[in-house]
Design a protein that fits this description.
mainly alpha; 2 helices; rod-shaped; about 85% helix
């Protein structure tokens, strides 16, 4: 029984999975933030282009 408990305490596989999960979550958050900001900039540029081509007919 003592050996099983010591083996469980020395096992680092669960910690590695948690670390990978945290890294994946951080990467996902960065991607969502970046895409959100770029989306706003692209929308502004398209509206400016549309207004330059045909003034007042853009949504």
């Amino acid at each position: 029984m003592k050996n099983a408990i010591l083996k469980f305490l020395r096992d680092e596989q669960g910690a590695t999975a948690i670390e990978y999960g945290l890294i994946a979550g951080l990467i996902a958050a960065v991607i969502v933030t970046t895409v959100g900001q770029l989306g706003g900039l692209i929308e502004t540029n398209f509206k400016a282009i549309c207004n330059g081509i045909k003034a007042g007919t853009c949504p």
